[in-house]
Design brief:
Strand order of the largest sheet: 8-7-3-2-9
Number of strands: 9
Radius of gyration: 18 Å
Distance between the termini: 34 Å
């Protein structure tokens, strides 16, 4: 896994009806570690922001590493943009979940995946809440909700689609995104 560093401003976004907070725009700097299996051989600086409820790369620059090869089209093609964006969202906390913090306040915390058996009783209100949480986090961080729900919980795509539609109809999942702090 490459080495990363991030910086963000005091601005941000409330995503999915305030369910998530995105510390964006932000800048991410990434470069391969010496022990990476397939290093991309350049230092990368990315500007990240929110578009349509997703953390995306809006600017990318590549720089030759000390004693490294020059920046070439082949090296640029090997930059794992989606992996860097997903890591910035999750591992470096650019996307956080907002939970009640006592009284009337909300606090942002890292994302906690639901329990392995959250869907065992079908689309209960709690299960719909959990699938909505997963859907919102995956969408915001550039992951595929269908792929993650299948991989982590064994929930097939038709079931995911049906439950997400139910959550939307019941007002549990809200596709509203707004910038704050400007």
């Amino acid at each position: 896994m490459p080495a990363y560093s991030t910086s963000s401003t005091d601005q941000g976004w409330l995503l999915y009806g305030g369910r998530l907070f995105a510390a964006a725009p932000a800048t991410v700097v990434a470069q391969p570690k010496p022990d990476d299996e397939d290093p991309w051989e350049v230092k990368v600086e990315m500007r990240l922001d929110i578009q349509d409820g997703r953390l995306v790369c809006t600017k990318l620059s590549a720089e030759q590493l000390p004693d490294g090869p020059p920046v070439t089209l082949d090296n640029i093609r090997r930059i794992p943009v989606a992996r860097i964006v997903a890591a910035a969202a999750d591992e470096f906390g650019l996307i956080t979940e907002r939970k009640p913090g006592g009284g009337y306040s909300l606090m942002s915390t890292g994302f906690d995946w639901p329990a392995d058996d959250f869907a065992k009783n079908g689309p209960t209100p709690d299960a719909l809440e959990d699938i909505t949480r997963v859907y919102a986090f995956c969408m915001a961080s550039g992951l595929s909700p269908n792929a993650e729900l299948l991989k982590r919980y064994g929930i097939p795509k038709p079931t995911t689609s049906r439950w997400i539609s139910t959550a939307r109809r019941r007002g549990i999942l809200v596709d509203e995104h707004r910038r704050i702090g400007e």
